[in-house]
Write a structure and sequence with these properties.
30% of the residues lie in helices and 24% in strands. It contains twelve helices and 19 strands. It binds zinc ion.
Length: 425
């Protein structure tokens, strides 16, 4: 399985879609196993009951079957038809109760009467079912049998990590979550795009060491942070990737620091992409960046998505399906992420070694002989002008409005001509 095209990524999503992912359990293991077919994932288990900062690793949850039987003998909210029907982390139950009592355990979508919502109760001892409001409204009075055949047992929380060795031990962290069941954009799009990113980076010579993380939301990153606490100072850049398959424009949310290299790279790549996008400042709402950027860690990690999780109407419902996610959107997301990563890889600061007046570029074959045309010449002048050891190439690109690649190419040429020296990193 290669994941170079949007179609290939979408095919993998189709395979993973029915699995019952949650914070723990077989669905997560099967999802990680599918990624591990082509990438050498390390699977890391943290046992139930382990205290991780202010949290405790929960029991492992697995479901065999779950359904409600109506007074006239029909099965509704059947887990075997869609795992969204069962409230996540439902405890086992087998009981018969009247509709009025059953209603306290039923959840419907707040806006759309035909959609099944996605709901969980990880940290409470309860059971419940999700169904369309239209179906609930049509239920007759009478006694209903509820059946949840599930286990909540000591086990472990598992995450998968791919490590790609670079020239530097400084790290670029790329993270997504694997804890949502049959939802496509919110969860699986990030899973497959991150796998494709891993495949693309694997064949390259890399400056940074890359660590790609597929983990159950919140507790997964916390397990990773706890396990890597003595190495976190090496994380120079990071991205949380989610909701990257819908047709909406790109959204980038800055790290808590706001001035990380990855923040500048993402802002620049999106500004010059020509694609609709929005840049958001840090906020403590959202996904796993909330853990990576919590004040004790304050890692330079931004969040990359198309429509953010709370901003598409299909969010956390049965409408977030394989139709919502488009192969071309997956492919464009992958290309944009590769461009951001590429800009961070090539970013550096330089010092102009001939800063008194402009150096004579024509004499060195750099001016008027450049094949790239006027923007290549403009880039030479911008790099010379701002290379005082303090500005990076991303700063030059932002101030000049020139594409990063043109700026980086100009720096390479000026360095080769002896007019620049690299000062950082
Ligand atoms: Zn979600």
């Amino acid at each position: 399985m290669a994941l170079a095209t949007g179609r290939e990524m979408h095919d993998l999503m189709q395979e993973l879609f029915p699995l019952n992912r949650s914070l723990t359990g077989e669905g997560v293991r099967a999802t990680l196993a599918a990624i591990a077919r082509t990438l050498p994932l390390e699977l890391v288990e943290t046992p139930t009951g382990t205290e991780i900062f202010d949290w405790t690793v929960p029991r492992e949850w697995n479901v065999r079957e779950a359904w409600i039987e109506t007074p006239d003998g029909r099965r509704i909210a059947d887990f075997s038809r869609s795992n969204l029907h069962l409230l996540g982390y439902s405890v086992p139950v087998d009981a018969t109760l009247p509709l009025a009592e059953l209603r306290e355990h039923l959840f419907t979508h707040p806006d759309d009467p035909d959609l099944v919502p996605y709901r969980t109760a990880y940290w409470a001892e309860r059971w419940g079912f999700c169904l369309a409001r239209r179906e609930l409204d049509a239920l007759p009075d009478g006694d209903y049998r509820v059946h949840v055949d599930a286990t909540l047992e000591p086990g472990s929380l598992v995450y998968g990590e791919l490590r790609l060795e670079g020239e530097s031990e400084e790290e670029f962290l790329l993270s997504t979550y694997v804890c949502h069941p049959s939802l496509a954009n919110d969860n699986l799009s990030g899973v497959v795009v991150l796998a494709a990113l891993g495949e693309a980076l694997r064949g390259r010579t890399l400056r940074y060491t890359y660590r790609l993380l597929w983990s159950p939301g919140t507790v997964g990153p916390l397990c990773w942070l706890a396990r890597n606490r003595d190495r976190l100072h090496l994380v120079r850049n990071g991205l949380v990737v989610s909701c990257v398959g819908d047709p909406g424009g790109f959204t980038y949310k800055r790290s808590r620091r706001g001035d990380a290299e990855v923040d500048a790279a993402a802002a620049h790549v999106l500004a010059t992409s020509g694609a609709p996008h929005s840049l958001r400042p840090w906020s403590p709402l959202g996904g796993d960046e909330r853990q990576f950027c919590s004040p004790g860690f304050d890692l330079p990690v931004g969040a990359f998505s198309r429509s953010p999780a709370d901003a598409f109407p299909e969010y956390h419902s049965s409408a977030d399906d394989l139709e919502l996610v488009r192969p071309e959107a997956l492919e464009q997301s992958l290309a944009t992420l590769l461009e951001i990563v590429g800009a961070v890889e090539r970013n550096a600061a330089y010092r102009n070694l001939s800063p008194y007046g402009e150096p004579q570029l024509g004499r060195r074959g750099l001016y008027r002989s450049v094949g790239g045309g006027s923007s290549a010449e403009e880039a030479l002048l911008w790099v010379l002008s701002l290379s005082d050891g303090g500005h990076t190439l991303l700063d030059v690109a932002a101030r000049s409005g020139l594409p990063f690649a043109a700026v980086a190419d100009a720096a390479d040429r000026l360095e080769a001509a002896g007019l620049l020296e690299r000062t950082a990193p």
